[in-house]
Amino acid sequence: MANGTPWRKETPGGQCEMDVVKIKIWIPDQKALNDVLAAAKVSLECGSPRRDQTGNFVITLYASKAEAKKITALKYRTEVDENFGKELEQRQKEVSKTDRFKGGKVKPEGLGVKR
User: Fold this and answer.
1) pLDDT mean across residues, the chain
2) pLDDT, tens digit, for every residue of 13-42?
3) What's the CATH code of the domain at 66?
4) Contact 62, 23 (CB under 8 A)
5) Taking the C-alpha atoms of 53, 57, 62 and 63 in order, what is their torsion angle to the nearest 10 degrees?
6) Residue 56 forms part of a structural domain
7) Which of 17, 10, 62 is nearest to 41 (CA)?
8) What is the span of the domain harbouring residue 68?
9) Which tens digit of pLDDT belongs to each residue from 55-98?
10) Burial call 73-102: b when 16+ CB within 10 Å, e when fewer
């Protein structure tokens, strides 16, 4: 684990790689969801699950490759995006490394609503 993220692994060369896959799973009910969540250590996507035309819930999970194997071994239909970690690595390269607030000296501006 690197940087406190369970899906970041350091390679022998000191590079970090993302060991995370995106899993879409179709389940019939809450009991099935409980079975899935008990089978492996995963993270659920935010938001409420949607139903497909057959009435199954379609849930998106994120897990390490090892944990994803536990999910795919279950009796439910799954789709696994093995390249999701590589996509995350590419997206993180797009994020600026500069401090746009200059250590707190520049006040944030925007459309945020204060409550």
Assistant:
1) 86
2) 655 667 899 999 999 999 999 999 999 999
3) 3.30.70.1710
4) yes
5) -120
6) yes
7) 62
8) 20-85
9) 999 999 999 999 999 999 999 999 999 999 888 888 888 888 88
10) eeebebebbeebbeebeeeeeeeeeeeeee
74, 36 in Cβ contact below 8 A? Answer: yes
What does the block give as tokens for 10?
Answer: 């350091």
Q: At what angle do helices 65-72 and 30-39 cross, to 10 degrees?
A: 140
**How many domains does the chain fold into?**
1
pTM: 0.72
